[in-house]
Amino acid sequence: MEDINMTKDMKSELTHRYNISTEDYKKDKICRKWLRAGIIAAIIMLMLISLLLLSSCEKKELCYLPHPHICHTTLTVNFNSEWDNEPIHSVYSRAGASEITPEMHMRYVLEFWNTDEEGNLTEIVERSSIMGGTLKPGKNTQVIEVDLPADKIVVLCWAEPLQAGQNANPYFDATSLKGIKMLQPLGLAPGKDAFSASVVWDYTEYQEPHPHGNAINLSQELTLLRPFGSYTVISNDMKEYFEKHGSNAPQPASATVNYQLWIPLMYDAFHQTAIGSVSEATYSYPVSVRTEGTEYTMAEDLIFIGPNNGTDNFYNFTVSSFAADDTPIHKSGNAEVRMQRNKHTLVYGAFFTERKTNSPGIDDSFDEEIEVVIPD
Predict the structure, then answer these.
(1) Measured between alpha carbons, how far apart are the two ends of the chain, in Å?
(2) S-S: 156 plus which of 95, 119, 247, 269, CB 3.0-4.6 Å?
């Protein structure tokens, strides 16, 4: 009897426990449903808020969150294709190179960089290559639209002329604007030209909430300048050469310029300075009559100049002349050329004969050209 009663009590206790567990389970299930519903409602609410904020930005209404970029920044790039008020084609025509033609257009390479507190480049934000308008003698302008972070940004720009059908200038490698390379062969050639600039824009004020109205339509200007100077070597002893060797003396057909010491073949657009100097650089150039009966144009070239505008840079070279059949005619002594950025230097001297040495004459005005007379 006692066993039977004990069994009943255990069943009663188990039943009681089972009923309580079932009731708790039901309550827990209901709570979970409400919690899930609340989470879903919160997610939907956040999505709606995000959509409203994005819509507000698109409509240029007030944004209450910091923006990761600047909208509608208009960059106007300006440069002058003249060499200090001297048309570029007059420089090219000295060596028979072609003038600026309607087929020549511009390519603009832009790099935007973040910097550290000391102003060093840290990370590239964006790099763009843009095909621009036709290259014109004198002033040129190109308008470019860019989106930039709300930060202090370094802007590097390289602009180069292209012949019809070209996608990049064949005389330069602008893969990185921190180290633009001048490619071989050296010597001036049609379309071998470029312009560069580096500037800092501070957009940190736009990290704060701001209205997307007219105030966000920023406008910037960037003025480019040639990163190199140019020179022309002129032999002014043509008459003496034929008087000495006779009227049947071989006509000079080509000249080889051998640089002495070092010349830079790279350019850092960030620091606006020449880098990557090399020794024993050389190039050949076709000789042409500059002034009938008196002068020959022997050679022309571009050399990267830096770090400062208006600073003298000195380079040394010798010139060897050859007849059409490559017979040597004459090798000059060492000539020194003084150059400045965006300036054209004329180097006069006796490159076919030997003259008695006297003092050189140098035009120090730097208004348009530098005239250097090699010691006779």
Answers:
(1) 143
(2) 269
Across all residues in the chain, what is the average pLDDT?
79
| 6-15, 167-176, 329-338: segment of lowest average pLDDT | 6-15
Tell me the residue type at 308. Answer: N
The structure tokens 């609340």 sit at 38
Q: Is the pLDDT of residue 155 over 80?
A: yes
b/e per residue 288-324 (b: at least 16 CB within 10 A): eebeeeebbbbbbbbbbbbeeeeeebebebbbbbbee
Mean pLDDT score, 249-259: 96
Share of the chain above pLDDT 70, in %: 71
- Local structure of 213: helix, strand or coil: coil
Residue 46 to residue 23: CA distance in whole angstroms? 35
Would the pTM of this model clear 0.70, i.e. be above it? yes
104 secondary structure, DSSP code: -
Using CA atoms, how far apart are residues 370 and 376, in angstroms rounded to an integer?
Answer: 18
Q: Taking the C-alpha atoms of 300, 304, 306 and 310 in order, what is their torsion angle to the nearest 10 degrees?
A: 30
Write out 289-336 in H/E/C secondary structure.
EEECCCEEEEEEEEEECCCCCCCCEEEEEEEEEECCCCCEEEECCCEE
Q: What is the number of residues in the chain?
A: 376
The whole-number average pLDDT for the span 300-325 is 89
Instruction: Judge contact between 148 and 117, C-beta under 8 A.
Output: no
Range with the lowest mean pLDDT among 140-149, 166-175, 204-213? 204-213
Sheet containing strand 105-115, edge to edge, reads: 121-134, 105-115, 152-162, 195-202
Q: How many CB atoms lie within 10 A of CB 138?
A: 11
